[in-house]
Queue: 3 jobs
Job 1
Amino acid sequence: MNNDMLSQEEIDFILKGSDGEKNEDNLELIGDVEKDTLGEIGNISMGTAATTLSTLLNQKVTITTPKVMITTIDRLAGAYQIPFVAIDVTYKEGLEGANILILKVDDVKAITDVLMGKEEIHLERELTDLDLSAVSEVMNQMMGSSATSLSEIFSKKIDIEPPKSYEITFSEGKEKIDILKGDQPIVKISFRMIVGNIIDSEIMQLIPLDFAKEMADILLGKEEENLSLEKDNEVSAAVEEIEEDYEVSEEIPIKPTNLAEDENNITKKKIDNNEETVVVKKPVFETFNGKSDESYNESIDLVGEIPVEITAELGRTKKKIGEILEYGPGTIIELDKLVGEPLNIYANGKFIARGEVVVIDDNFGIRITEIVNSYKHS
C-alpha cells in the first residue's frame, strides 16, 4: 500500500475514535436523544443515497448503521494526516448549513473506474481531476436523493448546491473549507460502506455542531417551541415599552360616530398646531355587468409538452418519532392498504385515478382501472 492510501488501522482510528475523542464526547454538548436523532437522519438519508449509488454503479451497495460522536478538526488533523477526498455539500433550500463527506482516495478511484466501464480497478495510479469530477457528479445524485428523503422527514422542500470535491488533508482543509476552519466541536457520523466486491471501507460525514443541533431540534419539535417562546417575549417587551411611553387613562370619553352620515363631511385635524383638511368619502369601483363573450380557441398542443409527474401511492401510515427511532434494517412497516386494494394515482399531487400493480419486464407498472369523476369533469 503506497503513502497516499489509508490503512485499515488508520481509518478505524479516525472513524471509531481515539480515547481523547471519547472523553470529549462525554462533554454532553448534545444529549443522547439528539445523537440518536442525528443517527437516524443519517441512516435514512445515506440509505437513500446508497440506493442511488447502487443504480449508478450497477453494484449492490450496503451501508451499515451510523455511529455518532463529537470531535474537533484539530484532533482529526493530528490523527489523520494522509490525504483523503472531501466532498463539500451545501444546502440551498429548506436547511441553512453544510456538511462534509470524507472518502478514501482509493474508493474514489474505484468508483471512477467502474463508471468508466473498466474491467479492472487500478488503485496504484494517481488521483486525477477526472476522479474528482466523477465523484462530484456521483455525490450530486446521491445527496440529491438524500435531500428528497430529508424533505419527507422535515415536511418541507430541501435542495443542495452542486457538491465540490477536494483532495486534501485536514490541515489543508482548515485553509480551504469553511466547515473545517477553527476548532469548534463538530459532529462526526461514520458509516461502513460495501460496494459489491469492489469497496469495503469507511466513510464519514462531518456536520457543524450548531447545524446538527438545529436539525435535531426541528425533528424533535423544539424549534416551534422556541419560536413561540421568542414571540411571547417580543410581545411582552413591546407591551412594557408602550406602557412606559404612554399614560393610559381609565376614563376616556369616546363619541360614537356614524360614517354613513358623515361620509361627505370634512374632518379637520390639528397636526403640529397646523390645521390640515382631510376629505373622507367612499371609494368608487368600476362595475361589470354580465359575462364577457370573449373566448379563446387556441390548440391544447400549446401545453402538450409540459411535463407532469405521475405518482402511484402504495399506502400510508403514521408513526411516532419514538417508533421511527427504533427502525433498522429488516424493520417491516404496515401500510393502510389491503392486499389487492386499488392504488391511488396522482398527477402533480392531484388525485386523478385508481389502478392495480402490474409487472412489465423487470419494472413495476400500474394499470388504470378507474378515473376519478371530479377529474374527468374539471
Job 2
Amino acid sequence: MKKWLVLFILLVGLAGCNQSKDTLDSLRVAEVTRSIFYAPLYVAIEKGFFKEEGLTIDLQTTWGGDKTMTALLSDGADIALVGSETSIYVYAQGADDPVINFAQLTQTDGTFLVSRTQMEEFTWEKLKGTTFLGQRKGGMPQMVGEFVLKKNGIDPHNDLKMIQNVDFANIPNAFASGTGEFVQLFEPQASMFEQQGIGYIVASFGIESGHIPYTTFMAKESTINEREQAIEKFTRAIYKGQQWVYERDASEIAKVIQPFFEETELKLIEVVIERYKNQKSFAEDPILDEQEWENLQNIMDEAGELPERVDYEKIVNTNFAKKVSE
C-alpha cells in the first residue's frame, strides 16, 4: 500500500475519532449555591436529559450572587443559575452586553418562617414584640421576608426587633444558640430543625409572596446570539427535568438527586422535595411570565432595592422556553 494512502487512512481515522469526541456540545453552568431547591436541574443531569440533547454540562457552585455574576460576566461560565434581581442590577449599571433571563427554574421564594416554640394556631400578629432573625439586607430572601411581613400588617422595623447583620452561613447556628424567637430559613435547615426539636415551621414565605422568578438561568446576550442551538437544547433538557419532577413522587426524586447531597439523609431530602412540590416552588415549565417579573420588581421596589424598573422584554427572552414547552 502506498505511503500516501496509509497516511490518508490514518488521517481519516483520526478525524473520525475527533468527530465522535466532539459530538457533545459543552456548556459551563455556575449555580449560586447547591440546594435541593434546584432539584429539576440535578434530575436533568442524572437522568441524562442533557446528553439526550447532545450536551455535556460542567456544573460549578460559585456560592453567592456576586461571585456567580462575576463568573458569567468574565466568561468563566456560559450560563448562570441565580436570582433574577442580579440581571436587573447589571442592566442598571449600563452593561453593553446585558444578561438575559431565558429559563426559569424556581417560581417562589424558598424560605420558611421557623418558630422556637410549637404553635398550633399561628398568626403573623405573634411576631410583634419579638426578635426576628432575618436574612442578609439587600438579598432577595430578606426583601421577600420584609414584603411578607408588611403584607401581613407587620412593620419590620418598628413592630419587632429585626436582626439582619448575621452572615448567611451562620444564621442557623445563631438561632440554635438562642438568638431570636423566629428565624427565616432555607431548606433543608428548616426541616432539620424540626427533626431536632430546635424550631418549628409555621409559615412559608414562598406561599405568602406568590410567584416570582426566584431563580433563573441566564446568559449574556452575546452568548445567546452566538449559541442559540445550545441554549435551546439546554432549555429543553431543563423542561424534561421539570416534567419528571412533577410526574414522580418525592422518594424517587430524592434517590436520583442524592449524589449531589451525599451528607444529607435521604429521608430529609424527601421531606424537603415534598414541601417544595406541594407549594409548587419548582417551576412547572421554563417560561418566565410578565406578571412574575412585575411581582419581582414590586418586591424589590418595596424594599428600596430596585435601581430602576426594567421592561420585561429588555432582559427576558422566552423564545426558547415557549418553543420547548409546546
Job 3
Amino acid sequence: MVSKRARSKLSAAFVRSAPIGKHNDGGGLWLHVVSDARAKWFYRFSIAGKRREMGLGSLSDVSLQQAREAADAARSLVRVGQDPIIQRDKQRRDTLRQDNSLEKIAAEAFEARKAELRDDGKAGRWFSPLQLHVLPKLGAYPVSAIDQRLIQETLGPIWHTKAVTAQKAINRLGLVLKHAAALGLEVDIQATSKAKALLGRQRHRPTHIEAMAWQDVPDFYASLQEPTVANLAMRLLILTGHRVKPVRFLRLQHIEGRIWTTPSELLKGKKDATEAFRCYLSDEAARVIELAKPFARDGFLFPSMRKGVMSDATLSRMMERKGLKARPHGFRTSLRVWLEDQTDASFEVKETMVQHTVGGAVERAYRRTDYFDQRKPLYDEWSRFVAGNE
C-alpha cells in the first residue's frame, strides 16, 4: 500500500497556479493542465497487465481533496482486481435504469435522431405528436411499464378523429421504445404493434389538397397580372411546379442566368446538402423574376410587408378570397396531369418535374441525373400554355 505521505505531493496553492503540463500527486493521481483555462484530473492504474487512465473531472469542478478521494475509491477497486472504469460505467447504467421515465427517454431519442431531421428538428414536427398526445398522460411512467393497453387508452380518443397525427404519435413512440431497448432497458418493443391491433383499422380517409384542372390554369394565371408580391409569387409557383416554401424563401443568389437552384434544406424530404434541385426558368418565369426584383429585401425575392419572408398562408388566402377550393400546392398536380395528358415525356422526367424521388437509393446512385435537359423544353411548353402564348 502506498503511504498517504507518498501520495499527497501536490498542495492546494500549487494546484491553483499549476503550469501547463502533467503533475503527479502520487499513487496514480495526476493533474493535467492543458491550458491556462483548462485542467483535469485523472487516475492512472494497471490491471491485467494493461495500463489505463480514468478521468476524474475538471479542476474547475473537482477540488484536490475530492480528486484524492475519488482516486482512493478507484485504488480500492484495483486492489481487489476490479477495473474502476468498468465499475463506474456499470453504476451509470444502473442509475439510468432508476431514472427511465418515458419523457426522459423520448427526449434522448429525439436528441439522437436530430442529425437525420431537417434543421436538426428545430421545427419540432418530429417531437410534437409525442409532446402533445403521449407525454402528458404517459411521460411520468417508467419506459418499462409502457404496454399496449396504456397506448390504446392514450391514443384511442384521437385514433379516428385525428388519424394522421395518431399514426405519427404511435410510430414515434415505437422509435422511443427501440431507443430504450438499445440503452439496455427492459421494454416491450412490440407494444405499439400490439396497440395498433387493439385500436383497429382507422376509419379516417386522407383528403387530398384540392387542385385546379390544368385546362383552367390559364384563366387563373391571367387574373394575376397586377405585379404585387403575392401575385408574382403565385405566378412563379405555377410556372415552375415548385412547392410553396422554395418560392417563399427564394433568394437572388439561388438564380444564375436561367437556372434556379433550390438548396436541399428548402426541399421536402431532402437532408443531404448535395441534393439541390435545378429548375429551368422559361421566358415567362424569367419575366416574373425581373418584375419581382424591385420588391426584394434582405436578399429575399418575396418578402413580407413587415419582416422576413411572405407568410406560408398568404397564397392560400388569396385563393380563398377568389372563392376557389383549389390551393397553391395543387398546381403541382395541375402540372403533373398536364404532363401526363399533353406530353410524351418519360415517367422519370414527369416525376422529376414536380421534385418527386424516383427509384430506390441504389438505382438513384447509379442513375446520377436530374433530367435537366429533358425537363427544359417542358418548362417552356407549360409556360407558353399557362401564359396564353401558344
